[in-house]
Specification:
heterodimer, A: 121 residues, alpha+beta, 5-stranded antiparallel β-sheet, B: 433 residues, alpha/beta, 7-stranded parallel β-sheet, 17 strands
Chain lengths: 121, 433
Protein backbone atom coordinates (compact mmCIF):
# COMPACT_ATOMS: atom_id res chain seq x y z
CA UNK A 1 0.00 0.00 0.00
CA UNK A 2 1.19 3.44 -0.84
CA UNK A 3 0.42 6.86 0.61
CA UNK A 4 -1.63 9.23 -1.56
CA UNK A 5 -3.09 12.73 -1.49
CA UNK A 6 -6.54 12.93 -3.04
CA UNK A 7 -7.90 16.30 -4.12
CA UNK A 8 -11.66 16.70 -4.24
CA UNK A 9 -14.35 19.40 -4.32
CA UNK A 10 -14.44 21.30 -1.05
CA UNK A 11 -18.19 20.79 -1.00
CA UNK A 12 -17.87 17.02 -1.09
CA UNK A 13 -19.00 15.23 2.06
CA UNK A 14 -15.90 13.64 3.58
CA UNK A 15 -17.72 10.77 5.30
CA UNK A 16 -19.35 9.77 2.03
CA UNK A 17 -16.07 10.08 0.19
CA UNK A 18 -14.34 7.89 2.77
CA UNK A 19 -16.91 5.14 2.21
CA UNK A 20 -16.54 5.30 -1.56
CA UNK A 21 -12.75 5.16 -1.32
CA UNK A 22 -13.03 1.80 0.43
CA UNK A 23 -14.65 0.43 -2.74
CA UNK A 24 -11.49 1.44 -4.61
CA UNK A 25 -9.24 -0.30 -2.07
CA UNK A 26 -8.16 2.90 -0.31
CA UNK A 27 -8.37 3.94 3.32
CA UNK A 28 -8.70 7.65 4.00
CA UNK A 29 -6.97 8.91 7.16
CA UNK A 30 -9.11 9.98 10.09
CA UNK A 31 -7.51 13.41 10.32
CA UNK A 32 -9.50 16.30 8.86
CA UNK A 33 -8.94 17.15 5.18
CA UNK A 34 -6.64 20.04 4.34
CA UNK A 35 -8.37 22.93 2.52
CA UNK A 36 -6.66 24.02 -0.69
CA UNK A 37 -7.48 27.29 -2.44
CA UNK A 38 -11.11 28.30 -2.66
CA UNK A 39 -12.75 25.14 -3.87
CA UNK A 40 -10.66 22.08 -3.02
CA UNK A 41 -9.79 19.84 -0.13
CA UNK A 42 -7.02 17.26 0.21
CA UNK A 43 -7.45 13.90 1.88
CA UNK A 44 -4.60 11.65 2.93
CA UNK A 45 -5.08 8.01 2.12
CA UNK A 46 -3.38 4.67 1.78
CA UNK A 47 -4.15 2.69 -1.30
CA UNK A 48 -2.87 0.45 -4.07
CA UNK A 49 -0.28 1.57 -6.57
CA UNK A 50 -2.94 1.95 -9.27
CA UNK A 51 -5.22 4.17 -7.16
CA UNK A 52 -4.96 7.11 -9.60
CA UNK A 53 -6.25 4.81 -12.34
CA UNK A 54 -9.03 3.44 -10.14
CA UNK A 55 -10.24 6.91 -9.19
CA UNK A 56 -10.44 8.22 -12.73
CA UNK A 57 -14.14 7.36 -12.81
CA UNK A 58 -14.84 8.93 -9.42
CA UNK A 59 -16.54 12.26 -10.26
CA UNK A 60 -15.79 13.97 -6.94
CA UNK A 61 -12.05 13.34 -7.20
CA UNK A 62 -10.00 15.94 -9.05
CA UNK A 63 -6.65 14.22 -8.98
CA UNK A 64 -4.45 11.81 -7.03
CA UNK A 65 -0.88 12.65 -6.04
CA UNK A 66 1.78 10.62 -4.27
CA UNK A 67 2.46 11.61 -0.66
CA UNK A 68 6.14 10.78 -0.80
CA UNK A 69 8.43 10.23 2.15
CA UNK A 70 10.68 13.14 2.97
CA UNK A 71 14.03 13.01 4.68
CA UNK A 72 16.33 15.35 6.55
CA UNK A 73 19.14 17.09 4.73
CA UNK A 74 21.88 15.89 7.02
CA UNK A 75 24.89 14.05 5.68
CA UNK A 76 24.52 10.38 6.48
CA UNK A 77 26.93 7.91 7.97
CA UNK A 78 29.60 7.08 5.45
CA UNK A 79 29.89 10.64 4.23
CA UNK A 80 32.63 11.27 6.73
CA UNK A 81 30.45 13.53 8.86
CA UNK A 82 29.24 11.39 11.69
CA UNK A 83 29.93 10.98 15.36
CA UNK A 84 32.91 8.77 14.71
CA UNK A 85 34.70 11.38 12.66
CA UNK A 86 38.16 12.34 13.78
CA UNK A 87 37.52 15.85 12.62
CA UNK A 88 40.02 18.36 13.86
CA UNK A 89 38.46 21.30 15.61
CA UNK A 90 39.23 24.86 14.83
CA UNK A 91 42.21 26.19 16.73
CA UNK A 92 40.50 28.77 18.91
CA UNK A 93 37.50 26.59 19.68
CA UNK A 94 36.03 27.68 22.97
CA UNK A 95 32.49 27.37 24.21
CA UNK A 96 31.34 28.80 27.49
CA UNK A 97 27.90 27.29 27.79
CA UNK A 98 26.20 23.99 28.32
CA UNK A 99 22.63 22.84 27.93
CA UNK A 100 21.24 26.02 29.42
CA UNK A 101 20.55 28.27 26.51
CA UNK A 102 24.20 28.79 25.90
CA UNK A 103 23.66 29.55 22.25
CA UNK A 104 21.66 32.61 23.14
CA UNK A 105 24.18 33.58 25.78
CA UNK A 106 26.97 33.26 23.27
CA UNK A 107 25.18 35.64 20.97
CA UNK A 108 24.55 38.24 23.64
CA UNK A 109 28.18 38.06 24.63
CA UNK A 110 29.32 38.51 21.07
CA UNK A 111 32.24 40.85 20.59
CA UNK A 112 31.83 43.93 18.49
CA UNK A 113 32.29 44.01 14.73
CA UNK A 114 35.75 45.45 15.19
CA UNK A 115 37.08 42.02 16.05
CA UNK A 116 40.26 41.23 14.16
CA UNK A 117 38.63 38.19 12.62
CA UNK A 118 36.39 40.34 10.50
CA UNK A 119 38.10 41.19 7.27
CA UNK A 120 35.13 42.94 5.71
CA UNK A 121 35.88 46.18 3.94
CA UNK B 1 38.33 59.72 -5.76
CA UNK B 2 36.84 56.32 -6.38
CA UNK B 3 38.86 53.85 -8.40
CA UNK B 4 37.12 50.99 -10.12
CA UNK B 5 38.28 47.92 -11.94
CA UNK B 6 37.25 48.13 -15.58
CA UNK B 7 37.73 46.47 -18.92
CA UNK B 8 38.47 49.01 -21.66
CA UNK B 9 37.63 47.81 -25.16
CA UNK B 10 39.27 49.72 -27.98
CA UNK B 11 38.47 49.17 -31.65
CA UNK B 12 41.77 47.98 -33.15
CA UNK B 13 42.40 45.84 -36.20
CA UNK B 14 45.59 44.01 -35.29
CA UNK B 15 46.69 41.33 -37.79
CA UNK B 16 48.08 38.12 -36.29
CA UNK B 17 46.36 38.98 -33.00
CA UNK B 18 46.62 35.55 -31.39
CA UNK B 19 50.32 35.44 -32.02
CA UNK B 20 50.64 38.94 -30.61
CA UNK B 21 48.78 37.83 -27.47
CA UNK B 22 51.20 34.95 -27.05
CA UNK B 23 54.17 37.30 -27.38
CA UNK B 24 52.61 39.71 -24.86
CA UNK B 25 52.69 36.89 -22.37
CA UNK B 26 56.43 36.46 -22.69
CA UNK B 27 57.46 39.78 -21.14
CA UNK B 28 55.97 42.70 -19.27
CA UNK B 29 57.61 45.09 -21.73
CA UNK B 30 55.99 43.48 -24.76
CA UNK B 31 52.56 43.40 -23.12
CA UNK B 32 52.77 47.01 -22.02
CA UNK B 33 54.02 48.07 -25.49
CA UNK B 34 51.03 46.43 -27.11
CA UNK B 35 48.68 48.16 -24.68
CA UNK B 36 50.26 51.55 -25.33
CA UNK B 37 49.75 51.04 -29.05
CA UNK B 38 45.97 50.83 -28.68
CA UNK B 39 45.03 52.57 -25.44
CA UNK B 40 44.27 56.30 -25.73
CA UNK B 41 46.47 58.46 -23.52
CA UNK B 42 44.36 59.35 -20.52
CA UNK B 43 44.96 60.55 -16.99
CA UNK B 44 43.50 58.44 -14.23
CA UNK B 45 44.07 55.07 -15.86
CA UNK B 46 46.31 52.74 -13.89
CA UNK B 47 47.83 49.61 -15.40
CA UNK B 48 49.21 46.61 -13.57
CA UNK B 49 52.77 45.51 -14.49
CA UNK B 50 51.55 42.32 -16.15
CA UNK B 51 48.99 44.03 -18.34
CA UNK B 52 48.41 42.76 -21.86
CA UNK B 53 45.59 43.32 -24.32
CA UNK B 54 43.15 40.53 -25.11
CA UNK B 55 42.08 40.43 -28.77
CA UNK B 56 38.40 40.13 -29.68
CA UNK B 57 37.29 38.75 -33.03
CA UNK B 58 33.52 39.17 -33.01
CA UNK B 59 31.89 42.56 -32.57
CA UNK B 60 29.53 43.18 -29.68
CA UNK B 61 26.71 43.67 -32.14
CA UNK B 62 27.64 40.33 -33.74
CA UNK B 63 26.10 40.75 -37.12
CA UNK B 64 26.74 37.10 -37.89
CA UNK B 65 30.40 37.68 -38.77
CA UNK B 66 32.42 35.10 -36.87
CA UNK B 67 35.71 36.73 -37.83
CA UNK B 68 37.15 33.50 -39.18
CA UNK B 69 36.65 31.60 -35.93
CA UNK B 70 34.46 29.02 -37.66
CA UNK B 71 37.59 27.68 -39.38
CA UNK B 72 39.04 26.64 -36.01
CA UNK B 73 36.93 23.50 -36.03
CA UNK B 74 38.90 22.15 -38.98
CA UNK B 75 41.66 19.63 -38.40
CA UNK B 76 45.13 21.10 -38.68
CA UNK B 77 46.49 24.59 -38.24
CA UNK B 78 44.09 27.44 -38.92
CA UNK B 79 45.30 30.90 -39.93
CA UNK B 80 45.76 33.59 -37.32
CA UNK B 81 43.15 36.34 -37.30
CA UNK B 82 42.84 40.09 -37.31
CA UNK B 83 41.20 41.46 -34.20
CA UNK B 84 38.23 43.78 -34.27
CA UNK B 85 39.10 45.20 -30.89
CA UNK B 86 41.48 44.83 -27.96
CA UNK B 87 40.45 44.69 -24.31
CA UNK B 88 42.66 46.05 -21.55
CA UNK B 89 42.06 45.49 -17.83
CA UNK B 90 42.80 48.61 -15.80
CA UNK B 91 41.98 50.49 -12.67
CA UNK B 92 40.27 53.72 -13.61
CA UNK B 93 39.52 56.83 -11.58
CA UNK B 94 35.84 57.69 -11.75
CA UNK B 95 36.45 61.02 -13.54
CA UNK B 96 38.41 59.26 -16.26
CA UNK B 97 35.55 56.84 -16.81
CA UNK B 98 33.26 59.64 -17.92
CA UNK B 99 35.94 61.07 -20.20
CA UNK B 100 36.59 57.67 -21.73
CA UNK B 101 32.94 57.13 -22.51
CA UNK B 102 33.11 60.11 -24.90
CA UNK B 103 35.91 58.65 -27.03
CA UNK B 104 34.86 57.17 -30.35
CA UNK B 105 35.63 53.48 -30.61
CA UNK B 106 36.10 52.95 -26.86
CA UNK B 107 33.72 51.03 -24.62
CA UNK B 108 34.17 50.60 -20.89
CA UNK B 109 32.88 47.43 -19.24
CA UNK B 110 32.62 46.31 -15.65
CA UNK B 111 35.37 44.02 -14.41
CA UNK B 112 33.72 42.60 -11.32
CA UNK B 113 35.59 40.66 -8.66
CA UNK B 114 35.08 36.95 -8.79
CA UNK B 115 35.50 34.50 -6.01
CA UNK B 116 37.07 31.14 -6.21
CA UNK B 117 34.89 28.49 -4.65
CA UNK B 118 37.08 25.52 -3.85
CA UNK B 119 35.14 22.55 -2.61
CA UNK B 120 35.24 21.36 0.98
CA UNK B 121 35.03 17.58 0.73
CA UNK B 122 35.99 14.66 2.87
CA UNK B 123 38.45 14.95 4.56
CA UNK B 124 36.55 18.03 5.64
CA UNK B 125 37.96 21.39 6.63
CA UNK B 126 37.81 21.95 10.37
CA UNK B 127 34.53 23.25 11.74
CA UNK B 128 34.60 26.67 13.39
CA UNK B 129 33.22 28.35 16.47
CA UNK B 130 30.06 30.42 16.40
CA UNK B 131 32.19 33.53 16.81
CA UNK B 132 34.00 32.81 13.55
CA UNK B 133 30.76 32.04 11.77
CA UNK B 134 29.29 35.36 12.99
CA UNK B 135 32.30 37.16 11.59
CA UNK B 136 31.85 35.58 8.18
CA UNK B 137 28.11 36.25 8.35
CA UNK B 138 28.80 39.96 9.09
CA UNK B 139 25.98 39.87 11.58
CA UNK B 140 27.39 41.81 14.51
CA UNK B 141 26.78 45.25 12.95
CA UNK B 142 23.17 44.22 12.45
CA UNK B 143 22.87 43.24 16.12
CA UNK B 144 24.64 46.43 17.13
CA UNK B 145 22.06 48.39 15.15
CA UNK B 146 19.42 46.86 17.41
CA UNK B 147 18.22 44.03 15.21
CA UNK B 148 18.56 40.68 16.96
CA UNK B 149 15.26 39.19 15.87
CA UNK B 150 13.07 40.68 18.63
CA UNK B 151 9.39 40.23 17.84
CA UNK B 152 10.07 37.85 14.96
CA UNK B 153 8.84 34.28 14.98
CA UNK B 154 10.49 31.55 12.94
CA UNK B 155 8.75 28.22 12.35
CA UNK B 156 10.82 25.08 11.99
CA UNK B 157 9.25 22.19 10.11
CA UNK B 158 11.53 19.42 11.24
CA UNK B 159 11.67 16.55 13.72
CA UNK B 160 11.11 18.72 16.77
CA UNK B 161 13.04 21.06 19.07
CA UNK B 162 14.19 20.84 22.68
CA UNK B 163 12.23 23.70 24.21
CA UNK B 164 14.25 23.64 27.40
CA UNK B 165 17.27 24.85 25.44
CA UNK B 166 15.77 26.88 22.60
CA UNK B 167 13.00 29.51 22.77
CA UNK B 168 9.97 27.52 21.57
CA UNK B 169 6.71 29.45 22.06
CA UNK B 170 4.29 27.04 20.37
CA UNK B 171 3.73 25.09 17.22
CA UNK B 172 1.80 22.10 16.00
CA UNK B 173 0.21 20.38 18.96
CA UNK B 174 -2.27 17.60 18.61
CA UNK B 175 -3.24 14.54 20.55
CA UNK B 176 -0.97 11.60 19.90
CA UNK B 177 1.71 13.74 18.32
CA UNK B 178 4.96 15.03 19.70
CA UNK B 179 4.31 18.30 21.51
CA UNK B 180 6.19 21.43 20.48
CA UNK B 181 9.45 21.71 22.36
CA UNK B 182 9.41 18.07 23.45
CA UNK B 183 12.19 16.74 21.22
CA UNK B 184 15.65 15.78 22.42
CA UNK B 185 18.46 18.28 22.25
CA UNK B 186 20.22 15.88 19.89
CA UNK B 187 17.40 16.16 17.34
CA UNK B 188 17.90 17.56 13.88
CA UNK B 189 15.24 20.15 14.75
CA UNK B 190 17.26 21.29 17.77
CA UNK B 191 20.22 21.81 15.47
CA UNK B 192 18.05 23.91 13.15
CA UNK B 193 16.81 25.88 16.18
CA UNK B 194 20.38 26.58 17.27
CA UNK B 195 21.21 27.81 13.80
CA UNK B 196 18.27 30.21 13.58
CA UNK B 197 19.20 31.58 17.00
CA UNK B 198 22.84 31.78 15.95
CA UNK B 199 21.83 34.50 13.49
CA UNK B 200 18.82 35.96 15.29
CA UNK B 201 19.44 35.48 19.04
CA UNK B 202 16.19 37.14 20.16
CA UNK B 203 13.82 35.48 17.68
CA UNK B 204 11.22 33.03 18.97
CA UNK B 205 10.47 29.63 17.50
CA UNK B 206 7.40 27.64 16.51
CA UNK B 207 7.94 23.89 16.42
CA UNK B 208 6.21 21.79 13.74
CA UNK B 209 7.65 18.33 14.44
CA UNK B 210 6.24 16.54 11.40
CA UNK B 211 9.31 14.39 10.90
CA UNK B 212 8.94 12.84 14.31
CA UNK B 213 6.76 9.77 14.77
CA UNK B 214 2.98 10.17 15.10
CA UNK B 215 2.95 13.56 13.49
CA UNK B 216 1.30 14.49 10.26
CA UNK B 217 2.83 15.21 6.87
CA UNK B 218 4.28 18.27 5.24
CA UNK B 219 1.01 19.34 3.63
CA UNK B 220 -0.78 19.42 6.99
CA UNK B 221 2.16 21.27 8.54
CA UNK B 222 2.06 24.04 5.97
CA UNK B 223 -1.68 24.27 6.44
CA UNK B 224 -1.11 24.59 10.19
CA UNK B 225 1.38 27.38 9.45
CA UNK B 226 -1.26 29.09 7.32
CA UNK B 227 -3.79 28.81 10.14
CA UNK B 228 -1.27 30.28 12.57
CA UNK B 229 -0.72 33.16 10.14
CA UNK B 230 -4.46 33.73 10.11
CA UNK B 231 -4.61 33.75 13.90
CA UNK B 232 -1.84 36.22 14.70
CA UNK B 233 0.33 36.90 11.66
CA UNK B 234 3.10 34.55 12.70
CA UNK B 235 5.35 32.82 11.85
CA UNK B 236 7.16 35.45 9.82
CA UNK B 237 9.70 32.97 8.50
CA UNK B 238 9.40 29.22 7.86
CA UNK B 239 12.59 27.15 7.72
CA UNK B 240 12.75 23.72 6.08
CA UNK B 241 15.79 21.43 6.09
CA UNK B 242 14.26 18.39 4.40
CA UNK B 243 13.35 17.11 0.98
CA UNK B 244 13.10 14.11 -1.28
CA UNK B 245 15.53 11.33 -2.06
CA UNK B 246 15.01 8.51 -4.56
CA UNK B 247 12.41 10.03 -6.79
CA UNK B 248 10.88 8.13 -9.74
CA UNK B 249 11.15 9.16 -13.37
CA UNK B 250 8.59 11.56 -14.76
CA UNK B 251 7.19 8.79 -16.95
CA UNK B 252 6.77 6.57 -13.90
CA UNK B 253 5.07 9.16 -11.75
CA UNK B 254 4.26 12.51 -13.37
CA UNK B 255 2.35 13.69 -10.29
CA UNK B 256 5.31 13.19 -7.96
CA UNK B 257 6.43 16.18 -5.87
CA UNK B 258 9.61 16.60 -7.90
CA UNK B 259 7.77 16.69 -11.23
CA UNK B 260 4.40 18.34 -10.78
CA UNK B 261 4.41 22.03 -9.91
CA UNK B 262 0.74 21.78 -8.96
CA UNK B 263 1.17 19.05 -6.40
CA UNK B 264 -1.00 20.01 -3.38
CA UNK B 265 2.11 20.47 -1.22
CA UNK B 266 3.55 23.04 -3.62
CA UNK B 267 0.22 24.84 -3.90
CA UNK B 268 -0.04 24.96 -0.13
CA UNK B 269 3.48 26.38 0.15
CA UNK B 270 2.53 29.05 -2.38
CA UNK B 271 -0.51 29.85 -0.22
CA UNK B 272 1.77 30.30 2.79
CA UNK B 273 4.05 32.64 0.83
CA UNK B 274 1.02 34.52 -0.47
CA UNK B 275 -0.04 35.04 3.15
CA UNK B 276 3.21 36.97 3.66
CA UNK B 277 5.50 34.37 5.24
CA UNK B 278 9.06 34.03 3.98
CA UNK B 279 9.73 30.34 3.29
CA UNK B 280 13.32 29.09 3.26
CA UNK B 281 14.44 25.66 2.12
CA UNK B 282 17.73 23.79 2.24
CA UNK B 283 19.07 22.95 -1.23
CA UNK B 284 19.85 19.35 -0.28
CA UNK B 285 22.98 17.26 0.05
CA UNK B 286 23.24 15.55 -3.33
CA UNK B 287 25.85 17.78 -4.94
CA UNK B 288 29.06 16.62 -6.58
CA UNK B 289 31.75 15.62 -5.84
CA UNK B 290 30.81 14.25 -2.42
CA UNK B 291 27.08 13.63 -2.16
CA UNK B 292 25.75 12.10 1.02
CA UNK B 293 25.28 8.36 0.92
CA UNK B 294 21.49 8.71 0.85
CA UNK B 295 21.54 10.07 -2.70
CA UNK B 296 20.70 7.86 -5.63
CA UNK B 297 23.27 8.28 -8.44
CA UNK B 298 20.47 9.51 -10.74
CA UNK B 299 19.77 12.48 -8.47
CA UNK B 300 23.33 13.72 -7.92
CA UNK B 301 24.79 16.95 -9.28
CA UNK B 302 23.69 19.91 -11.36
CA UNK B 303 20.06 20.10 -12.53
CA UNK B 304 19.07 16.94 -10.66
CA UNK B 305 19.70 17.58 -7.01
CA UNK B 306 17.43 20.57 -6.24
CA UNK B 307 13.99 19.13 -6.61
CA UNK B 308 10.58 19.33 -4.99
CA UNK B 309 9.61 22.33 -2.84
CA UNK B 310 13.14 23.71 -2.67
CA UNK B 311 12.96 24.27 -6.43
CA UNK B 312 9.90 26.52 -6.19
CA UNK B 313 10.40 30.08 -7.36
CA UNK B 314 8.50 31.45 -4.36
CA UNK B 315 10.88 30.04 -1.73
CA UNK B 316 14.47 30.93 -0.81
CA UNK B 317 16.79 28.02 -1.50
CA UNK B 318 20.03 27.76 0.45
CA UNK B 319 23.26 25.99 -0.51
CA UNK B 320 26.09 25.44 1.97
CA UNK B 321 29.58 26.91 2.33
CA UNK B 322 32.05 26.63 5.17
CA UNK B 323 33.57 29.54 7.06
CA UNK B 324 36.34 29.76 4.46
CA UNK B 325 33.53 30.51 1.99
CA UNK B 326 34.36 27.24 0.20
CA UNK B 327 31.40 25.41 -1.24
CA UNK B 328 30.76 22.23 0.76
CA UNK B 329 31.01 19.33 -1.65
CA UNK B 330 27.67 17.72 -0.90
CA UNK B 331 25.66 20.93 -1.35
CA UNK B 332 23.09 20.33 -4.08
CA UNK B 333 23.59 22.18 -7.33
CA UNK B 334 21.25 24.00 -9.68
CA UNK B 335 19.57 24.64 -11.91
CA UNK B 336 16.46 23.71 -9.96
CA UNK B 337 14.02 21.27 -11.44
CA UNK B 338 11.24 23.90 -11.34
CA UNK B 339 12.74 27.40 -11.14
CA UNK B 340 16.09 27.66 -12.91
CA UNK B 341 18.06 29.99 -10.63
CA UNK B 342 18.37 27.64 -7.65
CA UNK B 343 20.01 27.76 -5.19
CA UNK B 344 19.28 31.43 -4.48
CA UNK B 345 22.29 31.87 -2.21
CA UNK B 346 24.55 29.99 0.18
CA UNK B 347 24.58 29.98 3.97
CA UNK B 348 27.17 28.78 6.45
CA UNK B 349 27.44 25.23 7.72
CA UNK B 350 30.11 23.22 9.56
CA UNK B 351 30.26 25.20 12.79
CA UNK B 352 29.72 24.38 16.45
CA UNK B 353 26.13 25.47 17.00
CA UNK B 354 24.02 22.76 18.59
CA UNK B 355 26.55 20.00 18.06
CA UNK B 356 30.15 19.86 19.22
CA UNK B 357 32.09 19.27 22.40
CA UNK B 358 30.53 21.43 25.09
CA UNK B 359 27.60 22.40 22.91
CA UNK B 360 24.01 21.57 23.93
CA UNK B 361 23.70 18.61 21.55
CA UNK B 362 27.15 17.15 22.28
CA UNK B 363 28.82 14.97 19.68
CA UNK B 364 26.77 11.77 19.72
CA UNK B 365 24.72 12.48 16.62
CA UNK B 366 27.17 14.77 14.83
CA UNK B 367 30.51 16.40 15.60
CA UNK B 368 29.23 19.83 14.48
CA UNK B 369 26.23 21.40 12.77
CA UNK B 370 26.29 20.24 9.20
CA UNK B 371 24.48 19.78 5.93
CA UNK B 372 22.51 22.33 3.99
CA UNK B 373 20.23 21.59 6.95
CA UNK B 374 22.38 23.95 9.03
CA UNK B 375 22.93 26.56 6.32
CA UNK B 376 19.19 27.00 5.76
CA UNK B 377 18.19 28.10 9.28
CA UNK B 378 21.15 30.50 9.41
CA UNK B 379 19.69 32.27 6.38
CA UNK B 380 16.21 32.03 7.93
CA UNK B 381 17.67 33.81 10.97
CA UNK B 382 19.09 36.56 8.78
CA UNK B 383 15.66 36.90 7.15
CA UNK B 384 14.26 37.38 10.66
CA UNK B 385 16.70 40.24 11.27
CA UNK B 386 15.64 41.93 8.03
CA UNK B 387 11.97 41.58 8.94
CA UNK B 388 12.55 43.12 12.34
CA UNK B 389 14.33 46.03 10.68
CA UNK B 390 11.62 46.44 8.06
CA UNK B 391 8.41 44.55 8.86
CA UNK B 392 6.74 45.60 5.63
CA UNK B 393 9.09 43.48 3.50
CA UNK B 394 7.24 40.97 1.34
CA UNK B 395 8.69 37.46 0.97
CA UNK B 396 9.94 38.50 -2.48
CA UNK B 397 11.59 41.61 -1.02
CA UNK B 398 13.30 39.54 1.68
CA UNK B 399 14.66 37.26 -1.02
CA UNK B 400 15.83 40.24 -3.06
CA UNK B 401 17.58 41.76 -0.05
CA UNK B 402 19.35 38.49 0.74
CA UNK B 403 20.44 38.14 -2.88
CA UNK B 404 21.54 41.76 -3.08
CA UNK B 405 23.56 41.32 0.10
CA UNK B 406 25.23 38.24 -1.29
CA UNK B 407 26.59 40.68 -3.77
CA UNK B 408 27.77 38.93 -6.88
CA UNK B 409 24.74 39.70 -9.03
CA UNK B 410 25.46 36.78 -11.30
CA UNK B 411 24.04 33.35 -10.54
CA UNK B 412 25.93 30.10 -10.55
CA UNK B 413 24.83 26.53 -9.93
CA UNK B 414 26.92 26.03 -6.78
CA UNK B 415 26.13 29.00 -4.53
CA UNK B 416 23.42 30.83 -6.46
CA UNK B 417 23.86 34.59 -6.24
CA UNK B 418 26.59 34.34 -3.62
CA UNK B 419 27.09 33.91 0.10
CA UNK B 420 24.80 35.37 2.74
CA UNK B 421 26.01 38.70 4.19
CA UNK B 422 23.78 40.03 6.96
CA UNK B 423 25.05 43.59 7.03
CA UNK B 424 24.83 44.12 3.28
CA UNK B 425 21.39 42.52 3.18
CA UNK B 426 20.19 44.85 5.92
CA UNK B 427 21.35 47.82 3.86
CA UNK B 428 19.54 46.42 0.83
CA UNK B 429 16.39 45.79 2.86
CA UNK B 430 16.39 49.28 4.32
CA UNK B 431 16.72 50.72 0.83
CA UNK B 432 13.91 48.57 -0.53
CA UNK B 433 10.50 50.06 -1.34
Amino acid sequence: MKRWLITADASEDVASLRKRMVDHGATVDEEPPVPLGAGEQVLKAQGPDDLPERLKQEPAVHDVYPDSDVDLFEPSAGSGIDGSSSMAMDGDFAVSGGVDGSTVDDASAAPSESTKEDTSP
Amino acid sequence: MAIVDALIEIEAQIPGALDAFERAGTSYEEGRAQVMKVLPSLKGVHLRPAVKPVPMFVRADGGGDLGGLDAFGDAGLSPDLTSVSQVVAAQVESDALAEMAEIQGVTVWSNSPIEYHPTDCSPWQPAVTLAKMWTKLHVRPVWNAGFRGQGIVVALLDEGIDGTVYPVIGGYNREGGQAPGAAAVTSHGSMAAADVIAAAPDAKLLDYPFLSMLSSGALAMFNAVLEQRRLNGTPHVVSNSWGYYHYPTKAQEPNHEVWNLNHPLHRKIREVVASGATVVFAAGNCGTPCPTGKCDPTEVGPAKSINGPNALDEVITVAAVNANRDRIGYSSQGPGMFAHDKPDLAGFSHFFGNFGAGRPGGTTRAPFDNGTSAACPVVAGVAALLLQAKPSLSPAAVKQALIAGAGTGAWNADVGHGIVHARASLAAAQGAQ
